[in-house]
Design goal:
This protein is mainly β. Helix content is 9%, strand content 37%. The protein has six helices and 33 strands. Strand 14 and strand 15 (255-262) form a beta hairpin. Its cofactor is Cu cation. It is found in: Secreted, Extracellular space, Apoplast.
């Protein structure tokens, strides 16, 4: 066989050629196929059983595993009474916007009894992302982890862990969440809060009837574990800590960062964070809570101010690795920050820095083609005629907006309207690039807090370098807003409190090693500046990842035009694209 491969080449050349062929084969990506059946399943939590929407009957849903460069093909079949879409949160979707998933933005929903194949390639990404339903509030139970491994032979830029463990935070309602959001929209008031937080679908011992429903992680002394943290909660940013242990942050939103070690971290809905936890060198003869509790700047009583806990336990020498909780050992709890500790949040986020190495550069745009300034926050709409509401007053209902535009989703998909050239009556291309009404954004709110409703996109030529400043406002109170941009990563070049100063603040921007991510918190009572390169043609949703704010209209969309080259153009839609 070796003689046949050599084809007359000298032996060293033959060996080199064979080695190169082997490396090429190893480097080649594979196609990974998944079947996701959206179906109802009975799940018991907090002393009660209810029927929930799931994928393949699992709660949380199945983990999607891929490797950088792989093609991923997911056939989604809808077997429930609700319309459904799935979003692959953080996947760049280069030229494959048809697979992005937000309902009425990139596709019409998958109707009952129908299927749709999401087909995309994972390009230049590795780490932890996640998938979730992207219509109404179905993502309350329809979500799961995405784990993207590095290419074969490419190591982590940190010590390889002994084991990797997904840790997915969620929320649980005793009520049907679709009924919760319907009631809120009908009354104009805030929706009922959740009854518990969960870790990997389990509420844990601090809630009624839930000691048996506790996530437990058994570790071996001296070994290092990578926790792949995902905040899939609908409307709560979360503090997380493991009692008497330290966490080394090595990645956020599937981008490596300069490692730093903390006792506690903050993670917003939509965000992922990989941390290394090194077990104590000897069995500590104790167990430890892994706890998460909410961060909120809104007044107490309007959010789920409870704590979820899992348990970290140590494997005894000679004992099997299957968890067998020893209730006689002392159980330590971590000290979490106060629910409104904005100072802690600021201190943590300021530590996040890109690796900025030759292998993992921080390709932040140094020059900017277009600058935008968006106000981000809550507002009001008048009640329908001859009715009263449960909003800020009995004559108003809650709303939310960016630059005072509360996005109304159309009855067809924005991307399809753009691709077919039939946009008249579907959307306008006049989203305001700055606030139409300027005021002291972090001072006394204006007398008129009503927002405008509309379906407006912001158009960008291909390869435009963008700088966007997002400013929180005092209307209905300061609040942190985790903003997620579909189709892109961006660099967080600056942030601060008060009103953004366009003259003096840019001098403080970090253009060397800013953190790169897909979801960023707009600070409560402050602003954040991001930069990105619009190198992905299509229609890309940007919205607050607090689900109630998205429902109220805190959302917009960018339309990135095709470039001139063939590989700069949006691919045609697949034949099975759902119809509205």
């Amino acid at each position: 066989m070796a003689m046949a491969i050599s084809s007359g080449l000298p032996a060293p050349c033959s060996l080199l050629m064979a080695t190169l062929l082997l490396l090429i084969v190893q480097a080649q990506s594979v196609t990974r196929h998944y079947n996701f059946n959206v179906q109802m399943a009975n799940v018991t939590r907090l002393c009660g059983t209810k029927s929930i929407v799931t994928v393949n009957g699992e709660y949380p849903g199945p983990t999607l595993l891929a490797r950088e460069g792989d093609r991923v093909v997911v056939r989604v079949t809808n077997r429930v009474a609700h319309n459904v879409t799935l979003h692959w949160h953080g996947v760049r979707q280069l030229r494959s916007g048809w697979a992005d998933g937000p309902a009425y933005v990139t596709q019409c929903p998958i109707q009952t009894g129908r299927s749709y194949v999401y087909d995309f390639t994972v390009t230049g990404q590795r780490g932890t992302l996640w998938w979730h339903a992207h219509i109404s509030w179905l993502r309350a139970t329809v979500y799961g982890a995405i784990i993207i491994l590095p290419k074969h032979g490419v190591p982590y830029p940190f010590v390889a862990p002994h084991k990797e463990v997904p840790v997915v935070f969620g929320e649980w309602w005793k009520a049907d969440t679709e009924a919760v959001v319907r009631q809120a929209l009908r009354t104009g008031g805030a929706p009922n809060i959740s009854d518990a937080f969960t870790i990997n679908g389990l509420p844990g011992p601090l809630y009624n009837c839930s000691a048996k429903d506790t996530f437990k992680l058994k570790v071996e002394p001296g070994k290092t574990y990578m926790l792949r943290l995902i905040n899939a909660a609908l409307s709560d940013e979360l503090f997380f800590s493991v009692a008497n242990h330290r966490l080394t942050v090595v990645e956020v939103d599937a981008v490596y960062v300069k490692p730093f070690t903390v006792k506690t971290l903050i993670i917003s809905p939509g965000q992922t964070t990989n941390v290394l936890l090194t077990a104590k060198p000897f069995h500590p003869k104790a167990n430890f809570y892994m706890s998460a509790a909410p961060y909120s700047t809104i007044r107490p009583g309007t959010f789920d101010n409870s704590t979820v806990a899992g348990i970290l336990e140590y494997q005894k020498p000679g004992s099997p690795s299957v968890p067998s909780f020893d209730k006689d050992l002392p159980l330590f709890k971590p000290a979490l920050p106060r629910f409104n500790d904005t100072g802690f949040v600021t201190n943590f986020t300021s530590k996040l820095r890109s690796l900025a190495t030759p292998q993992y550069p921080a390709a932040v745009p140094r020059s900017v083609d277009k600058r935008f300034f968006f106000t981000v926050g809550l507002g009001t709409l008048p009640c329908p005629a001859n009715t009263t509401c449960q909003g800020p007053t009995n004559k108003t209902q809650f709303a939310a907006a960016m630059n005072n535009v509360s996005l109304v989703l159309p009855s067809t998909a924005l991307l399809q309207s753009h691709f077919t050239g039939v946009s008249r009556g579907v959307y306008g291309s006049n989203f305001p690039v700055t606030p139409l009404l300027k005021f002291n954004y972090t001072g006394a709110p204006p007398n008129n807090t009503n927002v405008a409703k509309g379906t407006k996109l912001l158009v960008l030529p291909f390869n435009t370098s963008v700088e966007l400043v997002m400013q929180d406002t005092s209307i209905l109170g300061f609040e942190s807003h985790p903003l997620h941009l579909h189709g892109f990563n961006f660099f967080v070049v600056g942030q601060g409190f008060g009103n953004y100063d366009a003259v003096n603040d840019p001098a403080k921007f970090n253009l060397v090693d800013p953190v790169e991510r897909n979801t960023v918190g707009v600070p409560a009572g402050g602003w954040v500046a991001i930069r990105f390169l619009a190198d992905n043609p299509g229609v890309w949703f940007m919205h607050c990842h607090l689900e109630v704010h998205t429902t109220w209209g805190l959302r917009m969309a960018w339309l990135v035009l095709d470039g001139s080259l063939p590989n700069q153009k949006l691919l045609p839609p697949p034949a099975d694209l759902p119809k509205c």
